[in-house]
Write the structure tokens for this entry.
Amino acid sequence: MPEREPAREREAAREFARERETALEREPNRAPASEREPARKREPALAPDPAPGRETNPAAGREKIMLASRESRRAALVFAAVLLGLFGISTAFTQFNPLAALSAQKEFWRFIFVDFVPPYMGKWEALAGAVMQTLYMALSATGISAALSLIMSFLGTPAICPFWAVNAAVRGFASILRNIPSLVWAFILVAAFGIGAAVGVLALIIATVGSLTRYFIETLDEVAEEHMEALRSTGAATLPVVTQAILPAATPGFIAWILYCVELNIRASTILGMVGAGGIGLLMMGYIKQYNYPAASTAILAVAVIIIGVNLLTDFLRKLIL
Amino acid sequence: MTPILEVCDLKKIYRGSSKPAVNRISFSMSAGEMINVIGPSGAGKSTLLRCINRLTEPSSGRVLIEGEEITGVPAAKVRALRRRVGMVFQHYNLVNRLTVMQNVMHGRLGYMNAFNGALGLYSEEDKQRALEILEQTGLSEFLYHRAGELSGGQKQRVGVVRALMQQPSILLCDEPIASLDPASAQVVMEMIRDVSVRRGIACITNLHQVDVAMRYADRIIGMNGGEIIYDGPVAGLTERMIERIYGKPMSQLMIGGDVSA
């Protein structure tokens, strides 16, 4: 901290302020500052430091120079040991035996290459119908979830909704929905409403709204940090700031998350079908229960094809849009 | 004559900090004046600027914009006063995905009702004015370019035009050239000086470069430790004073040398 300014200098500055005030009134169309007051010349103040530091390393030559402190290396070692220990204990408790997996090889390959081959293509109409149902489930659920999540994310971000209690409530609600997997929701809903694609859609929506709301809030927070201030400084109200800056800037993020959820939901909806929520999963489970493995194998192939197909499509859309 | 900007005994203590970021700040500005604020990092330059339009909430003290108090008034009044205070940011804060024209029109949002603002229904008159200013500042060829495609210097000029669209009486520039190369920096500083001279807007600019500050100012405010150490003409800024502002001898300050050469 420099010492306080002497009163003399402060007085001079005030004097200047008064003079300038009157000068401004006299000549409003004055020339720019640099033309009126030539910039001062200054000596290059680059005198060399009288005592350049020539420190010698006392440890040089005697001990190995370490790249990190002893404490941080010890911490890293302990961390690695704990991690390895946890993996070891977990594996021991699951009673996973690599040798058993190897010895069962023959049975495994026989099951796949004898029971499942050749895929039975006779009932392709039923198969196509089930595939379409799965796609519809995933798309419908993602679309409805996106709309709901958009509204919820507005309420969940402090940038848009200034009531922290509402923010916290929305975030908490979304977390609860998200942390229960859609498979569990499907079990509950199938038990309550019976088998069908509509139940599958509902289960997907519940789980997707949970995650998508969180993702949307993160995107909004990120964007708001960058753009909110500039528009607030113009005196704009919240709604125009949201629609004119935050939404356009957040759109690519939103689309990326929605595409991600489409992929996720295609996969999830096949699995949901297996617990009774319609689509290709239901068909596949039926074949497996009837020991109709050739037909099940066709259904499995169909699942692989639609998942790969949808991934390629969303990758393409991402490149196109973002 | 009412000053355009009046700051009285301004103080800001950030939460969780015992030392004020700015303290005992008082000064006033008249139309068309150009003040450059210098001082080491953490001296409170940005806090001072942000307290003027209440992006940062002052702890105590008063700020008057054209004689009207912005401190201690309701949010609607703050917004109405903010329209008269343009702001330019170090990182431009443009919406990169929108066009230059859309970004510039954001300067009008404060004047519109929420409905028109939300839908971006700007008046033809405002759009016409935007075209004129963009023309004058040599940016009209980028009208429909995305802001993200522009160079740093161009982005900052768009930032200034956005502020001008507010028809402000004060322009706050927070480190406007800190992220720019020397050539773009000069263009932007000349643009800001032009704003002050031709349009009679009071400009207050935070700068890290003492030589640039001296070249483009009518008046220099030097800050250290949250307080004003120097407030006066460029000519009065002696080497001794610069050393006091930065708390270091000249030999430890990298100052651009002779700027008039």
About this structure: Chain B touches chain A through 75 residues (CB under 8 Å).
